[in-house]
Design goal:
It contains 9 helices and 13 strands. By secondary structure, it is α/β, with parallel strands linked by helices. Strands 7, 8, 9, 10, 11 and 12 form a 6-stranded mixed sheet that branches. The protein starts with a helix and ends in a 7-residue tail after the last helix.
């Protein structure tokens, strides 16, 4: 498969209409149809279901759409990395991050690096730790800011200082919202939203102990904002780490006994680093050493 044909495919998938896609690609409709037919023949699968006015992707078509986007993103990233020079450093560094207060420190480091190298930009991707690790493995994300627990054996890493407390987002005017801390038994009677990540749920289950089975589970989430909206609507609680974000009608109340989580900055071990990544990693290591000198944490 050629990247050019994958780009054609993504345009058709987006427009759901071959004629419209051909117009946007500045090629004829028969040429585009032939390219798609050859792709289906090469892959041995049906990618579309063709209707009178629109096409619908099959299950195989949806899978190829995801893969095509990843391949094209990786190709664009590779082209960008090959264009830069040592004297005039430029390019884009892809940063994956979960929702953590440690992003504040990383943002300071990114800003400092950009001041030294103004032609370097950052592409920030927000998601769960598992999704970010997957993107690192595929070469789509350069560096991930992950909340623990994280198996760091396959990564180069920096463990960031400080830990975030766990607690609940609950209605500001609710009984729980007026507490200074929340215990496990306080959550038995209200709908609760938990993080989707299995390793985090295991950590929470250990904290709850036997009380875990008594939770009124409303659902799971990957990022907090929409879960907060759900909690506001249901009168329930979102189990989450403490953030600096403010949510309308909600208040963060920490758990008792305290449960806290650290964060690590990781990049793939043993991989070839582009010039811009080499510079950024050196910058991060120097910034880490500066924290150590200030008594921020032990060296790794």
């Amino acid at each position: 498969m050629e990247l050019r044909v994958l780009e054609y495919y993504l345009m058709v998938a987006r427009e759901e209409n071959i004629t419209k896609a051909a117009e946007l690609l500045h090629i004829t409709q028969p040429t585009l149809s032939r390219q798609l037919a050859q792709m289906e023949e090469e892959l041995g699968v049906q990618l579309f279901q063709r209707g009178k006015h629109r096409i619908i992707l099959t299950e195989d078509g949806l899978f190829l759409k995801r893969r095509a986007k990843e391949l094209i993103d990786l190709a664009d990233k590779t082209k960008s990395e090959l264009k830069r020079s040592e004297e005039n450093l430029s390019g884009t560094i892809s940063i994956g991050s979960g929702e953590t207060k440690s992003m504040g420190l990383l943002a300071d480091w990114m800003t400092g690096f950009h001041k030294e190298h103004p032609q370097v930009t950052f592409d920030i991707y927000s998601s769960t730790a598992d999704r970010i690790k997957d993107r690192i493995e595929k070469g789509l994300t350069d560096i991930g800011l992950l909340t623990e627990p994280v198996e760091v054996g396959r990564y180069q890493f920096i463990r960031l200082p400080g830990k975030a407390r766990w607690g609940v987002l609950v209605g500001s005017d609710s009984e729980l919202g007026r507490k200074t801390a929340v215990k496990a038994e306080d959550l038995w009677e209200i709908p609760v939203l938990l993080p989707r990540r299995d390793s985090v749920k295991n950590e929470l289950a250990n904290w709850f102990g036997d009380s875990y089975d008594r939770l009124n589970l409303l659902g799971t989430y990957n990022l907090v904002y929409n879960a907060a909206v759900m909690a506001d609507s249901s009168g329930g609680a979102v189990l989450c780490m403490e953030h600096d974000n403010l949510y309308r009608n909600l208040r963060f109340v920490p758990l008792e006994p305290v449960l806290s989580t650290g964060a690590v900055l990781v990049w793939k071990k043993g991989q070839f680093l582009s010039p811009v990544m080499n510079h950024f990693v050196r910058y991060l290591r120097n910034a880490e050493k500066a924290l150590v000198l200030k008594g921020g944490k032990e060296t790794i």
